[in-house]
Write a structure and sequence with these properties.
Elements: H1 3-15, H2 24-76, H3 84-101, E1 108-109, E2 113-114, H4 118-123, E3 125-129, H5 137-143, H6 145-159, H7 166-197, H8 204-209, E4 211-215
Antiparallel strand pairs: 1-2, 3-4
């Protein structure tokens, strides 16, 4: 190696700053921060799973109950000149829609449910306002507009079948019910995306109603 090359190597070594040794306090703080970040990720994943499971339980309970009540009526109630089975189905799904819209408002059912739906009770989570207080009926309706949309569309579908006009019923079903179902589907997908991406995992309904899901 030439003198010039040796000089360049020495200059490079001289210019390279030495890394300061990390103090025990700094190392401990870094470890605690890593644990905190890990706990936040764990909490995030768990609260998401709890929310999905709670929503699944609640919507399945309402949907199964509405179906069990409606299906026998299709075979028992007369369908002409007025389709009483569809009229009955309309009232059932209207009630199901109301149940979903109002499901997060404060109420108490014995020692089992205290302002929580069965799903949220099972998952140990609760809907509150931004001050950790129980939400109002208006807030419950606002935050559940999209989850209730499927039941509302089902009620509308039953209503248009009360007076059976085949051509008109088919047109309304194709040009009204199907687009509404598509809108409801994509709106619910958007809500799921917002739970993952929004600050504090507040979906659009939470932002509209100024609510948050708290882990008890």
């Amino acid at each position: 190696m030439t003198d010039t090359e040796n000089k360049q190597v020495e200059e490079t070594q001289t210019e390279t700053p030495e890394q300061p040794e990390q103090s025990p306090e700094a190392a401990e703080q870094a470890t605690e921060q890593a644990k905190t970040n890990s706990n936040q990720v764990f909490h995030f994943e768990n609260i998401l799973m709890k929310r999905f499971v709670a929503s699944f339980i609640d919507l399945v309970l309402v949907g199964v109950a509405a179906t069990i009540i409606t299906v026998p009526a299709m075979f028992v109630l007369p369908k002409s000149p007025i389709n009483f089975a569809s009229l009955f189905g309309f009232f059932v799904f209207a009630a199901a829609s109301a149940a979903v819209l109002l499901k997060d408002m404060p109420y108490k059912m014995g020692d089992m449910l205290d302002g929580q739906t069965p799903g949220k009770k099972a998952m140990n989570i609760r809907v509150t306002d931004l001050n950790k207080k129980p939400i109002s009926m208006e807030q419950s309706i606002k935050r559940n507009l999209i989850p209730a949309s499927g039941f509302v569309i089902a009620a509308i579908s039953q209503l248009i079948n009360v007076i059976q006009i085949p051509f008109l019923t088919g047109m309304v079903g194709f040009f009204v019910i199907l687009p509404l179902l598509a809108i409801s589907f994509f709106a619910n997908i958007f809500e799921i995306y917002k739970i993952y991406s929004a600050p504090q995992h507040r979906r659009w309904g939470d932002q509209l109603a100024n609510t948050i899901v708290a882990w008890e």
